[in-house]
Amino acid sequence: MENPIFCYEMKVRDYECDAQGIVNNANYQHYFEVTRHEFMENLGLNFLELHNQGMDLVVASVYIKYKSSLFGMDKFRCTVERIERKGVRYIFHQKIVRISDNVVCSTGEITAVCVIDGKLSRPEYIDKIFADYI
Hints:
By secondary structure, the protein is α+β, with helices and mostly antiparallel strands. It is built from three helices and six strands. The chain starts with 5 loop residues before the first strand and ends with a helix.
């Protein structure tokens, strides 16, 4: 596994599992979201403060590839592997890896854009924050 730029550990909660005992597919998107928010909070980005200033970083698209299932009580690492910049889009490349056997359970490409005062924008402020990672 390459060195991710950010790693956040979590544990599957019972209510996240479906009747088959595996994590319901929608929860993987939640795990990716939690990890991105923790990463950005670590960098000093506060979503409420940004919103109050008229700036919102919002998800534009999500692509998730499921590779191996997580089960109840599994501990896992969710990572931000890298951030790619394409025009006004920030593409977060992420992984979910089960800790017990180091198996990649899921990968994701989440595209976010910045809206300033209701208009799609390329904010210099966020570019500066992500400068070491793009």
